[in-house]
Amino acid sequence: MKRKKRAQVPIRLNILFFFVFLLFSALILRLGVVQIVYGEDYRREVERTQDEIVSTPVPRGKIYDRFGRVIVDNTPQKAITYTRSKTTQPEEILDIARKLAQYIDIPDAEKKVTERDMKDYWILTHPKEAKRKVSEQERKKLADQGLTQKEIDKKVYEWTLDRITKQDLAQISKAELEVIAIKHEMESGYALTPQTVKSKGVTDREYAVVSEHLSELPGVNTTVDWDRKYVYDNTFRSVLGSVTEEDEGVPRERLDYFLARDYSRNDRVGKSYLEMQYEEVLHGKKAKVKNVVDKSGNVISVEQVYPGERGKDLVLTIDAELQQKVEQIIQQEILATKRKGRSPLLDRAFVVMMNPKTGEVLAMAGKLLQDGKFVDFAIGNITSAYAMGSAVKGATVLTGFQTGVLHPPNTYIKDEPLYIKGTPVKKSWKTMGTINELTALKQSSNVYMFKTAIAIGGGVYRPHAPLRINPEAFTTIRHYFSQFGLGVKTGIDLPNELSGFQGQSTRGGFLLDLAIGQYDMYTPMQLAQYVSTIANGGYRMKPQLVKEIREPSADGKKLGRIMKRFEPVVLNRIDMKTEYIKRVQEGFRRVMQEPGGTAYSYFASASYKPAGKTGTAEAFYDGPIQSRRNDPTYNLTLVGYAPYNDPEVSFAVVVPWATQGESDGINDRIGRRILDAYFELKMKRTAAQPDEATGTVQP
Question: Which domains does the chain have, with CATH numbers?
Fold first, then answer.
């Protein structure tokens, strides 16, 4: 019995050893399969050593008016994109372009294709003919020069391009031009960066068909792009600016600037005015995508690193409703004048309305009549300059006070025709007799200003004798004018602002012209800043178009959190006594509120108690009609504010190239109507409650 038990032990051990043997055999077999059969695949997986981080654009920030109305928005649109790898060859791109051309239509493809694009395509599609463009003997000569193969290939390619004839290119069909246009878009930009092949006008059918065939179109994708939408169409359009199209990309002259800030070459950026000025705010944070590639540059997988964030929003100081009304008034008044057959050269007018206490621009309008249609020229308020006439006489009187040649109150000067040797008679529109500064402003006396300027220049007027003045008087007057913003940049938050133009001669007669606004030229925005400085008691405020920068809201419907609020900026306090400024304010009040004032007939019935100054400057036509260049015309202007005792709105109206006697009053009519519009809107909004989401009063 004992022997049987001992015999059974080895059998159990043998069975155990057998099972262990089978397990080890299976493990060895599995390792062999992994090593031999799948080893190459796993080796390639291990060699995935490069992670390429790519940035993709996001929608730009929105632009709102001061009451939270959207002025500029983004419209989603279907798009077809292509992302090429680092190893993709031109032949592969051409093959994909041919397939893609079967599914999408490229309108005006021939206009998007350059001669170089056609030559590159011809070389790819006619390899044998292309090779014959450079002889073997020429290739051998290049090799004999000791050039590298890369240098030889480059030179041969250049020669081939130069030798492709028009007859060669004529072989390319119209259908092939569409392929070339697609190929051009696919090859633009960097590898691993999505390039837009088509975004405008992608039909539902094109989008669906391409989506169905993505498996046979490596690198192609269907996605959603955006386009800028200007809600009020042409209103304020020139100041809002514009954004480059996807085929424009980053402007070449600013390429290095943008590339250093993580932009791609084909990114759309603001290229003018507000869109450009606040590009870094509106552009947003680009989405980050990680392309995992192997050593050959082929994309293995794509992972989202950061979803991106839409650009920040701008809230402007502009009142969109007031802006529209002002633009409509300008157009109506110009057309009314034209319909009467008056002022054939008059084709534009400008209006700036602002809060004189803060510098916030409430409306900035400009209209230009071209070929019977009005185009927006609001930007002309800072990019064009004109002689402004008597509207600047407030600055002349204040300069007289400050230099000591006038002594408020009541410095009396005789208004009479001035006969200066070698100069046409210089006089006011009527002879006023002995008057003080208040009457000089109220009735717009030229002679009062002439004699003030003569005194500043240390001159003495003698009838029919030459007028000798100290040329430094030009510098003196311009110095004090600049304190109001006349002849210097206003500081508005827009690029390309003009500082105006100064007359070059220092002859005595021109000093007199300077004193009545008929020598130097100023912009409408400078005129608005000037009258605002008088209205608020002597503080030159920086004009501001942007009120706030806000975070994009989650739902895109309400305004987001305030990131930055732009506070009023005082550029300077004019170097004059308060009593001087009050004296000019009283003169401006009399212009509009007392009989005999040059604007009384237009503003006498206004309940909002305005103050201001009219202006008429003799000028010469400098517009688009070449045959009429240098024809004598008149610039009609008006500045003002209301109410006179507590100003909440100031304005400047400029109507260049009018015909005297035929278009008189257009400046005053525009001024009265825009002030009426402002106060009517204010009355309508008085009962409105503050909006909880925006913190502003909704219209």
Answer: 50-79+228-316 (3.90.1310.10), 320-685 (3.40.710.10)
